[in-house]
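Lab meeting, action items carried over

1. Structure of the two-component assembly. Owner: GW. Status: complete.
Input record:
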Amino acid sequence: MPSIQPAELWQESERWNQYGPELLRIQDRHDREFCYGPTHEEVITDLVRREIRSYKQLPINFYQIQTKFRDEIRPRFGVMRAREFSMKDAYSFHTTKESLEETYQVMYDTYSNIFNRLGLEFRAVEADTGSIGGNASHEFHVLAESGEDAIAFSSHGSYAANVELAPTSPTEQCNESPAQALEKIATPNQHSIEEVCKFLNISAQQVAKTLIVKSDNPEEDNPLIALVLRGDHELNAVKAQKLEGVANPLEFASESEIEKSLGCKIGSIGPLQLKCPILIDHAALALTNFACGANQDGFHYQGVNWKRDASKIKEPRSVDLRKIVEGDPSPDGNGTIQIKRGIEVGHIFQLGDKYSQALKASVLGADGKEQIITMGCYGIGVTRVVAAAIEQNFDEQGIIWPSSIAPFDISLIPINLKKSDQVKATCEQMYTDLQNRGLEVLFDDRDQRAGLLFADHELIGTPHRIVVSERGLENSEIEYKGRQDTEAQKIPMTKILDFLQNKITRN
Amino acid sequence: MPSIQPAELWQESERWNQYGPELLRIQDRHDREFCYGPTHEEVITDLVRREIRSYKQLPINFYQIQTKFRDEIRPRFGVMRAREFSMKDAYSFHTTKESLEETYQVMYDTYSNIFNRLGLEFRAVEADTGSIGGNASHEFHVLAESGEDAIAFSSHGSYAANVELAPTSPTEQCNESPAQALEKIATPNQHSIEEVCKFLNISAQQVAKTLIVKSDNPEEDNPLIALVLRGDHELNAVKAQKLEGVANPLEFASESEIEKSLGCKIGSIGPLQLKCPILIDHAALALTNFACGANQDGFHYQGVNWKRDASKIKEPRSVDLRKIVEGDPSPDGNGTIQIKRGIEVGHIFQLGDKYSQALKASVLGADGKEQIITMGCYGIGVTRVVAAAIEQNFDEQGIIWPSSIAPFDISLIPINLKKSDQVKATCEQMYTDLQNRGLEVLFDDRDQRAGLLFADHELIGTPHRIVVSERGLENSEIEYKGRQDTEAQKIPMTKILDFLQNKITRN
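Predicted assembly:
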């Protein structure tokens, strides 16, 4: 498929406007509009609507390996988040939801097989569908401390989801202590949750914090919405922007907008008597005798109780707003949540009819009627897989390649290549013999001292290393060392080829 | 290397301004300027100036296979001249001209080997260096009637060059007939060479035609230059724009500019008394007793003789301006020129120091002094090779793939696959057996009649076809037909695997 795509297709799917500044927009010499494809749903749907006519031709699945471009605001971590990267992307087309689900499962299993074969420790997790859209999706994450994503796992059971997606449940109110009286307290110059807690000598778990964001209707009298969370919880922006009334993508109100609409500074905002609609996170709603801003600069309430003080709240709704945290009950009811860091290397989607409906991609059904096609899509970040493999497999000396993606199987290192005809002849023979057995050999014929050669090959991370030296040849021995071995071993020359082939086949 | 390249590098080489509208220019979200790489001299030179420090690291040759984009004003002929295409490009770096020439010869031989192995009828020809630049270059052309380029070959000897480049030699004046008197003749409403020749009853070989182009200094009093050719010859724009004083790229003067500067319409322009510098093609200069425009609307001269009438010509220069034609003497002195059509599939260049000088790419030499690197570059149009192979190898039924680039070696076609268990079992066994021998098989398991399957596979162009039918199996035979065979043949089942493997290895 082309990397440069016509704007017309993106206008048909309405993503030309929705995709935002990550879409690199281009004008050609005739001033026609194009973009550098960050993904290819529009292009493949256009091809299919032109070429596929009958239900008999479905299901079908197309793939390519191609360069994509996403104009990241902050490209970073080398190829981990580069603007230009290589992706394997596939798109499947179906007459029914069941057929899509069947192919989706095949792709799920195939991706699992691929990442297993790549030797990576990974997890498939439920995921948000983001700007691609659709009904259901899974991400494949390589687990690594340096990962940009947080993954929620259940301690028991199989639940695993991106923290962006993982839901939290309503919590029972803790009614152990009797209701305190509602009290307004002067909190001069105490703005952040941390400052207020220290000043009032309470924990963040006893505070309701209020964030002000824009509504999805800026034309309204009050274009703002309040989001209330327990003081120690973090807002989950992906959940928030999907809620009715909230602007998508999520946008925080500016300080001046808050002061103008709500009459006080952000540091003293609270849910009671607030002049805008309020969405309260389940955990915040479980609070009793808590503190919050009093909507008056320099004042907070203490001893707030939702039920008693409810009349002071405008249009409250109880919703799921926060990021799940370690120790939360698992959404599937099995055990509690643990969080790990992950690097997203694959993502599969049940798209449904989002693109086929917009682009009017239909086939003639068995009943003779036109029907809209059902779609799935499936991507692997090829470039990022390489970076993720390194993040998961390294030591102080350098890379430790999983054997399936090592650029070479074996480093062949001579000692005194230039001085010893015997070393040279043996190396050249071994180089040929190993290659004839289908093994990939990096023969380092640079005129450098052995220590430097060893260090370079540990840095490069070739899984197996053999050293040919005059001293070894006197004993008819070759030195072998695996990348992760602590000691080298001597292998008789007559056995070295079989020895290496067994090592590499076993992996 | 990246497909999206920073403008800064192209500004350093000065190609940001020189490359023209084929360079797709792009602004990112931060309004920084980039282009979609049409070629990668700047990027690789930037990498090398950062990474290569010493003459000891040279020569070195880097290559990639990547998508390029050239914003062609008229993309056409499918992938033959698409704006987006796949290219194999290599760049070599040297300390001396001799080292470059050595690598250039290796690449020349390698390219020849590649195109031979692809089974293509091709010629390597001397070529213009165009917007890539440098000292010397060769193009590799697949010969085909539909080719966009014209190639000049010598009938004897080895000379071959793109017509754009092939030089023509000065011709002796033919002085057989005595000089006629110079005569001004009214030629009302006769503008084109064809009209004037018909009106005067002479051949185009007896006329000097005058073209008016812009000079390279538009600030001059007279910013135009005249190019004079024999009436039957065509201007070679590539030669013309390299001449001193001529704008590069070549630009024709408009009718109004001509009338304003020269005082008459284009149809009556001629070299005598013309008020701008004049470049005369060697062949035009050999004319005697010829006709030309009289620089007065509706009049031409006849009986013109250069030497006698030279005083009437302003700043004449004798130059090589025309396209070589069939029958011209070969530039290498061996025989005469023949012209064939070619499709350019490869191009190699001795770049010299064009890019390394501009980007200050140097290494420390053996003498301890910094020296500018010498470069070569080498490209194969991967996408176009496929199209060229088809243009050269087809018949009424469809494509005839050269075996080295056929998508599949063998089409395996069952008769009544759905009805005969025996046909099905045999096909599946053969599919496995052939693949185990390393052969690529297209097993057509569609439920369609045999005639349609045969036609589809001839269209696709698979080099070998086998047919499995119940009738054949009764006699323990498989039907075989090569794509270009007129008759199918029966092969005993026991011999079919070896038979096919021999066929395919032989090719």
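2. GW to write a short summary for the group page. Key points so far: Chain B touches chain A through 17 residues (CB under 8 Å). Residues 81 and 142 of chain B are 15 Å apart (CA to CA).
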